[in-house]
């Protein structure tokens, strides 16, 4: 009986130590949040953070992408053109999600590396924020108003004309 108790206690100790030693890096960072109303994610490049609260006062367009996503590559030229035309009236943010390759290299390749870029965390496959907004598959674009409220989520690749129409409809921005 005593041997069984000691074996059970040792097994519990090993299990506890393995969980402590192999914790999720996102969980180890208390400020990380995939709450759509208050997201706070690690930067894709470097050690900074990308926080929704940092963009208050301007509408925010959040585009979710991954290096394997051919539709993400296809919509990138339209997003770059609209971002250039919008100037400081709208903030564009990229969130690398469901990544299996090199999201930072992909962002540089498609020309969005000058946007704030975040790395999605948690969820089923490093897709916590994507899942929290109800997204599945890529690309997905989320539109936040200047107060940080999620206004709309569109699934699928957006053309430049569709993106411009969304900015006009949601924010009254005519480009």
From TrEMBL:
Coiled coil: none annotated. Residues 30-172 form the Thioredoxin domain. GO terms for molecular function: antioxidant activity; oxidoreductase activity. It holds the Pfam family AhpC-TSA. It comes from the Bacteria. InterPro entries: AhpC/TSA, Thioredoxin-like_sf, Thioredoxin_CS, Thioredoxin_domain, Thioredoxin_ResA/DsbE_sf. PANTHER family: PROTEIN DIPZ, THIOL:DISULFIDE INTERCHANGE PROTEIN DSBE. This is TlpA family protein disulfide reductase.
């Amino acid at each position: 009986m005593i041997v069984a108790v000691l074996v059970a206690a040792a097994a519990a100790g090993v299990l506890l130590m393995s969980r402590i030693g192999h914790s999720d890096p996102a969980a180890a960072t208390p400020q990380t949040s995939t709450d759509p109303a208050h997201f706070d994610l690690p930067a894709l490049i470097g050690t900074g953070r990308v926080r929704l609260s940092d963009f208050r006062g301007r509408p925010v367009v959040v585009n979710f992408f991954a290096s394997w996503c051919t539709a993400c590559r296809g919509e990138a030229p339209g997003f770059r053109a609209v971002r250039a035309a919008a100037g400081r009236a709208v903030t564009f943010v990229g969130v690398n999600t469901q990544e299996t390759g090199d999201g930072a290299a992909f962002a540089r390749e498609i020309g969005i590396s000058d946007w704030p870029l975040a790395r999605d965390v948690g969820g089923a496959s490093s897709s916590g924020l994507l899942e929290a907004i109800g997204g599945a598959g890529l690309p997905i674009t989320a539109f936040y108003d200047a107060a940080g409220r999620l206004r709309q989520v569109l699934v699928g690749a957006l053309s430049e004309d569709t993106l411009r129409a969304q900015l006009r409809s949601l924010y009254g921005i005519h480009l």
